[in-house]
Amino acid sequence: MSHYLLDTHTFIWLTEISPRLPEDLRDLIDTAELVYLSIASLWEIAIKVETGKLKLKEDYETIGVKVEDSDILMLPISFEDTLQISRLPSHHRDPFDRMIIAQAMNHSLDIISIDNKFDAYEVRRVWA
Question: 3 Cβ partners below 8 Å, 6+ apart?
Fold first, then answer.
């Protein structure tokens, strides 16, 4: 089974057709059975755009349409996900990444991410 959770930057690079996302990963995402995006990623993008830490090629408001027009499924945050965060060792302090890690663990998803800090946790990270 090929079930993946996109890290925030992976989603941005995918939707902006950035060369930073390797073509083989783009193909992997396109052919996967299920691909999820955490609501935490949208929260992270909104905050970083608002604070000026992130510039998108298009307005933030277009992201909803991009998700709806794709096969990407939104993954809500559950109470169980927050419990999992409370059990995670503090290898990675970024709260958004910690939520992605917790959700990947709880839903048995592989994370597509360039961030090798994820490797300190019991999740499978996929990158070229």
Answer: 32, 33, 34, 35, 36, 107, 108, 109, 110
* Helix-then-strand count for the chain, H and E: 6, 5
Span 66-117, pLDDT tens digits: 888 899 999 999 999 999 999 999 888 899 999 999 999 999 999 999 999 9
123 close to 110: Cβ distance less than 8 angstroms: yes
Instruction: Give the per-residue pLDDT at 77.
Output: 98
Cβ distance 122 to 105 under 8 Å?
Answer: yes
Residue holding tokens 């890290």? 7
